[in-house]
Every structure is written in structure tokens, then in C-alpha cells.
Design a protein that fits this description.
Elements: E1 17-21, H1 53-65, E2 70-74, H2 84-92, E3 99-104, H3 109-119, E4 123-127, H4 133-139, H5 146-159, E5 165-170, H6 179-186, E6 192-197, H7 215-225, E7 228-230, E8 241-245, E9 251-255, E10 268-271, E11 276-278, E12 287-288, H8 290-294, H9 297-309, H10 315-318, H11 322-325, H12 332-335
Parallel strand pairs: 1-2, 1-10, 2-3, 3-4, 4-5, 5-6, 6-9
Antiparallel strand pairs: 7-8, 8-9, 10-11, 11-12
Bound molecules: S-adenosylmethionine (SAM) and iron/sulfur cluster (2 copies).
């Protein structure tokens, strides 16, 4: 497809990024995503319902034809997907795909980091909400140990990954006191901690605005301990606002989709593990891609281009409106953030 045929949505936004969920099961039950009292222990779509590696390969090639350059593998917990390094190896060979990244809770990273690096993965984001062992374990739904995740980060560095992103969701009254320790721990390591506002994704996490800590107050708190200056965005549509430490201790980021919506630059599609396209993190439903996928690359390209051209999502900019606020929303663990 030549450049002039690359689809733009109804707000003029190109399709540049894809978040692909490889599995919807998870070994954690973070309260803000997959609360243990709402999601059964054995939750997970049957393996036969998930896109196969062949289907994922075709799908990614088609998205590249439509302009996608950055792919992020996510979940559920993506490291639970069997033979993930084989998938990474296949995808890393797709011409035109500039960047493959992975978001993980890090529990299985120590076992898999080397195989993932050997397969061609170069960028990893690890979610880590607390350093205090008790707070961490509570936030994981009593499933995880912080030491396992820190060991996973060390193993990733030993395997050749550098400059990891460390994502922390901050909730009022839960882990605000973990913010400065997280910054202190990772300052000077080259890794970039990014604080994410607690979002009203899905319908299970009992989101309330007063439980969300706005990035501006975190920035003030961090900046009064370690003075900060704003940095330029790395690329158009980058979701995190970047700040550097004045003393040269590296950088941190803030993802502020509640307090400072960035829909105008949102060029990200999401595909669930069972092959549904979601054009917004807050969409109610996805659109099945498997039927078109079974008909080959051209049919799928036409289908996705049509869906993208019809897109007019801008939930974060409209979330104050009752008709938008009260709509059903897809769960985060189905589309991976
Ligand atoms: N399981 C992997 C992990 O946790 O990194 C990947 C999937 S998880 C859904 C992707 C990201 O979404 C994580 O960084 C997580 O913290 C974030 N997330 C989940 N629910 C959220 C919420 N309600 N608000 C903000 N971020 C959320
Ligand atoms: Fe699992 Fe990630 Fe959701 Fe936590 S945020 S429950 S680790 S999918
Ligand atoms: Fe993109 Fe939807 Fe988030 Fe807006 S609310 S930035 S359109 S995912």
C-alpha cells in the first residue's frame, strides 16, 4: 500500500502503533485491573480461541502495510504465553516494523529474558507499583513478591536489555508513599520510571476520581526532592510527559490520561488475544478480525483500513459527559493497556 493510501481516522489520526495482547490470563490480580473478587482464579480464554502465531504474523504484516511501525506485546501477562520468544523471533523479521516492545509484570522475566533478547526483543516495560514487600504483594492481589520482579529486572539487564521502562500506577491511600522510594531506587540506573494515573478502564475496578493522584502533584512532590526540568517528547504522540533530573540522574515520565487527555494524538490500535480490534482503550466492544484474517492479507488490510477510517474515539476528552461516562468499557486485561 503506498503512503497516500495509509488510512486516517475521522479525526485525521494515522495508525502508527499496535498493542497486541497475546493472552488474557494473568498470574496477578491487581485491584485496578483484574480484581480477585471479580475475576475467577482460573480465568483465561481457551488456547484454541487465541490467535495462533501464524495468524499474528499475518496480522502484524497487514498492520505494517497500513502504517503501523511500533508494536507492543502485552496481555494479561504476556510471559504466560507459551513459546513467546518464537513469536518475537518471527515478528522481528517483518520488514517495515521499526520497534517491538513488551509490557510485563516481571514475575517470569528472570526465566525468559535471555531467550527474548536472543529472539530480537530490545525494549521491555516492567510494571512495578511498590518497593515495599507488603504493599507490592497486596497490590498484586496477594500473588507476587517484589523480590521476584527486581530479580527479573536484573536478569533483563544481564541479558542485554538497557533503559527499561518501569510503570507504576499510583492510587491515593494505597501506594503514594512508594513514589519517592521508586524514584530513588531507579535514579541513576538508566531505567525510566513512569507514573501512570489510575484510569477508569473497564467496569470492575471501582474507579473513583478521588482515588487517582494527578501527575501534577506527583511531579511537585518529586521535583521538590530532586529538581526536574521538562524534556522534549521523543516522538509525536508519545503518551508520557518526560522530565529530566537537574543533577543528571536520568529521567522520569508521567502518563496523565485522566488529568491531561491526549486523544488528539492517539494513533494506537489494540487487538485482543482472540483477534478483536479495539480503536480505543475505553471502547465497549471490539470488532472481530478473524473472519477477514482467514481470507488473507488483502481482505484483512481492507477490513482494518475501513474500521480505522470510521474511528472517531476520544473518550478521555469526553469523560465528563454522562452519556460517555456511563457506557460499558472493555476490561484492561483483555487489551493490555
Ligand atoms: N500484565 C502486564 C503488566 O502488568 O505489565 C501487561 C498488561 S497490563 C494490563 C498493562 C499495563 O496496564 C500495566 O502497566 C498496568 O499497570 C496498567 N494498568 C492496568 N490497569 C490500569 C488502570 N486501571 N489504570 C492505569 N493503568 C492500568
Ligand atoms: Fe495482570 Fe498486568 Fe492486569 Fe496486573 S495489570 S492484573 S499484572 S494484566
Ligand atoms: Fe486514545 Fe481512546 Fe485513550 Fe483517547 S481515550 S487517548 S482515543 S485510547
Amino acid at each position: 500500500m503506498n503512503a497516500s493510501l495509509l488510512p486516517l481516522d475521522r479525526l485525521g489520526r494515522p495508525l502508527h502503533d499496535l498493542r497486541l495482547s497475546v493472552i488474557d490470563a494473568c498470574n496477578f490480580r491487581c485491584g485496578y485491573c483484574m480484581p480477585a473478587d471479580r475475576v475467577p482464579e482460573d480465568y483465561g480464554t481457551d488456547a484454541s480461541q487465541r490467535l495462533s502465531f501464524d495468524e499474528i504474523d499475518t496480522l502484524v504484516r497487514v498492520f505494517v502495510r497500513l502504517g503501523m511501525r511500533k508494536l507492543r506485546l502485552t496481555g494479561g501477562e504476556p510471559l504466560l504465553r507459551k513459546r513467546l520468544p518464537d513469536l518475537v523471533h518471527r515478528l522481528a523479521g517483518i520488514p517495515g516494523l521499526d520497534d517491538i516492545a513488551l509490557t510485563t509484570n516481571g514475575v517470569l522475566l528472570a526465566q525468559q529474558a535471555r531467550a527474548l533478547h536472543d529472539a530480537g526483543l530490545r525494549r521491555i516495560t516492567v510494571s512495578l507499583d511498590a518497593l515495599d514487600p507488603r504493599v507490592f504483594t497486596d497490590m498484586s492481589g496477594r500473588r507476587g513478591q517484589v523480590g521476584t520482579v527486581l530479580a527479573g529486572i536484573d536478569a533483563a539487564v544481564a541479558a542485554g536489555f538497557s533503559r527499561l521502562k518501569i510503570n507504576a500506577v499510583v492510587q491515593r491511600g494505597v501506594n503514594e508513599d512508594q513514589v519517592l522510594p521508586l524514584v530513588e531506587h531507579f535514579r541513576g540506573t538508566g531505567h525510566v520510571v513512569r507514573f501512570i494515573e489510575f484510569m477508569d478502564v473497564g467496569d470492575s475496578n471501582d474507579w473513583r476520581r478521588d482515588r487517582m493522584v494527578p501527575s501534577s502533584s506527583l511531579r511537585d512532590m518529586i521535583g521538590s526532592r530532586w529538581p526536574l526540568h521538562p524534556l522534549q517528547a521523543d516522538y509525536r504522540g508519545e503518551v508520557a510527559e518526560r522530565y529530566g533530573f537537574d543533577d543528571g540522574g536520568g529521567e522520569i515520565g508521567f502518563v496523565s490520561s485522566v488529568s491531561t487527555p491526549f486523544c488528539g494524538d492517539c494513533h494506537r490500535a489494540r487487538v485482543s488475544a482472540d483477534g478483536r480490534l479495539f480503536t480505543c482503550l475505553f471502547a465497549a466492544d471490539g470488532t472481530d478480525l478473524r473472519t477477514a484474517l482467514a481470507s488473507g492479507e488483502d481482505a484483512l488490510a481492507e477490513h482494518v483500513a475501513g474500521l480505522w477510517a470510521a474511528r472517531d474515539d476520544r473518550y478521555s476528552e469526553l469523560r465528563g459527559l454522562p452519556e460517555v461516562r456511563d457506557r460499558r468499557r472493555v476490561e484492561m486485561y483483555l487489551i493490555g493497556g
